[in-house]
Amino acid sequence: MNEEWIKYAEDFTSGESDVLQELRAHCYAHYEDSSMLSGFFQGRVLSMLSHMIRPNIVLEIGTYLGYSALCFAEGLAPEGKVITLDVQEDTNRVAREFVAKTEYRDKIEFHLGNALDVIPTLPHMFDLVFIDADKPNYSNYYNLVFDRVRSGGFIIADNVLWSGKVIEPDMDENTQALHDFNKMVLADTRVSNVLLSIRDGLMVIRKDQ
Ligand SMILES: C[S@@+](CC[C@H](N)C(=O)[O-])C[C@H]1O[C@@H](n2cnc3c(N)ncnc32)[C@H](O)[C@@H]1O
After folding, report:
1. Ligand 1 center–CA 4 separation, angstroms
2. CA distances (Å), 121 to each of 81, 118, 137, 145, in order?
3. What is the CA radius of gyration of the chain?
4. Stated pTM of the model
5. Is residue 37 in contact with ligand 1, taking CB distance under 6 Å?
6. pLDDT tens across 2-28, in order?
7. How many angstroms does the Cα of residue 30 sit away from the middle of ligand 1?
8. Are 61 and 88 in contact (CB under 8 A)?
9. pLDDT, averaged across the chain
10. pLDDT of 154 higher than 80
11. Can you tell me the distance from the alpha carbon of 116 to that of 95, in angstroms, rounded to the nearest whole number?
């Protein structure tokens, strides 16, 4: 899609909340790695998917500033919650401050630590898992959460096109890890998947059995 079509798609998409707008502006103004944040259009897609799934428990791997956690929270079932994991203390503090300003303050549970260590300590079954942290561990996260996703539940992984690098012949470690992840998902007979070419690529996976 060219830039004008993308802008048209954004213009004809419902707006985000004031807090999400404020959070994005804060991120773009103060963080050099602001491209990590899901952004307006993808955020609206995540919110819409959450509204369609109506999850009780969302597990998010990679909180950053809490933007995507807030998008998922919008579609939760009435008693639902988002459990979000990150290793970075400074961004986690900002995420908590923004979430505290919203109606979702009691619906988002923050855990600080390496996701590979934290996930096995969580007692829940998940309706939706969002993988959006360090790329070399995407396949590890998938395998770690798989048995804890309910049948019919979903796993969504961000950045699976990695700015198009996944189709280039010479791949660095992150690109290779994402390409291996995509191949693993496609070959997994327990799931159905669609790779949405939104932003940096969203892999949407349904656990069939
Ligand atoms: C792309 S950002 C997440 C963006 C966020 N989901 C959003 O869309 O607004 C990735 C985050 O993963 C975190 N991260 C990286 N390695 C991690 C690990 N091993 N365990 C938990 N979090 C990790 C980073 O600190 C960073 O905040």
Report:
1. 30
2. 17, 5, 18, 12
3. 16
4. 0.98
5. yes
6. 899 999 999 999 999 999 999 999 999
7. 17
8. no
9. 97
10. yes
11. 21
Q: How far is the CA of 134 from the centre of ligand 1 (A)?
A: 7
pLDDT of residue 209: 76
Q: Is the CB of 68 under 6 A from ligand 1?
A: yes
Predicted confidence (pLDDT) at residue 1 exceeds the cutoff of 80: no
User: Residue 1 burial by CB count (10 A; 0-12/13-18/19+): exposed, middle or buried?
Assistant: exposed
- pLDDT category at 43 given cuts 50, 70, 90 is very high
